[in-house]
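The aim of this short unit is practical: by the end, you should be able to scan a pair of folded records and say something sensible about each. We start with the first protein, listed as its amino acid sequence and then its structure tokens.
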Amino acid sequence: MQTEYIAEMKRRTELGEFGTPANIDLVNDAWTKILEEELAKKETRFEDISGLWVPKRESVKVAFEGRTRENLEIPKGSKLIAFYNKSESEGAPHLNLVWVVNEN
């Protein structure tokens, strides 16, 4: 959590905004509001990595296979998600692999 939010909550608590002693429900409500405001500032989008297919050959080492169309640089710590592809097309991938981008 960013230090400015922690300092702000400490200041508000010391001023008695949440009661004395502090009412934990009021503190939690204040934190919830801060987090909701922060999340509202961020735009989440999914960057395509590759389609994934079940290999035609039997293998115990590979569950799915695919290739990227271009060079990718996925930042360390990024969240990767695989979505089932519900396409009726015979050549469509079984899964779509993406990474999550949160921007301010």
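Turning to the second protein, read its sequence before its tokens, just as you did above.
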Amino acid sequence: MMRSKWGFCVVNLCISAAWFSLTATGWCAAGEGAKTIFRFEESEGKSLALFDGEKPVLVYNFGIMLKEGVPEKFRRSSYVHPIYGLDGEVLTDDFPRDHYHHRGLFWAWVRVEADGKTYDPWAVGGLPTKFEKWLGRQTGTAAAGFGVQNGWYAGERKVVNEQVRFHVGHADDVGRAIDVDLTFEATDKPVRIGGELPLKKGYGGFGLRYAPHTKPAVMTMKDGAGSSDVIGLRSAWADYSARFNKASATAGMAILADPRNPGFPNSWLLREYGYIGPTWPGVDTFTLEPGIPLRLRYRVWVHRGDAAVGRVAQAYDRFAEQAQKR
């Protein structure tokens, strides 16, 4: 164990197959020729940064975050931002002016019914997610992982237990896999979750908000590509590629949905301004029950180039094949 420049402990350990089995990737051994080792740095008791050698990979914000000039009501925690491209460019956005509630890689629903009240955590409208404890951190040359336990709180009462586990692979010349394993369980009373209803778009759940970029961006799904908004089409995956933050080269990120997720293949919402996400359960609702955990699994594929150069389709095939073997 060593100490970072910020005075926090950085753990460098061998990867534990038992711990990572929860993230369902099957990557446990160091790859041949790997020259770097993953490491963590914690900052100000709010954020946990992951590095692949000296290259930043992502930051998980477990503390309460608010950007200067943004209204107080948008304070939030428990999301990932930034996510970095393979060449160090920032690929996500936080507190964008057009949607202050959008926050990097996040998971939240528009309708959450608990204790007879309806909340909108998607728009940071009550029922905040609060960090409770770390479930573990591990690093090596092939992969790194960490887990966190959070709670959804109605006032002082926790109504949902949330556990999130991340498994991050070493990048190759094309891309890097970030696996996210989400588990939700009501504490003592049923809680219902659902997507946007009035406009029948159904958005809510797992999603990515992308950084400012050169337009037009290209949005690609399993059956085609374009630069226009997509509402309601079903697909196993979706990708968004552009030149982010004035970078000279195109990069992108795709969300790959595990075929074991409920409702697979889900409908999607893709916005040309820079958002993509599967819309489950959409205009319907799903009831979280005490003692019956809901598990959702996704892979974020960070890549160079567009979806073709970044081999997104092939990345999905590998992901799906791994899921079938587990």
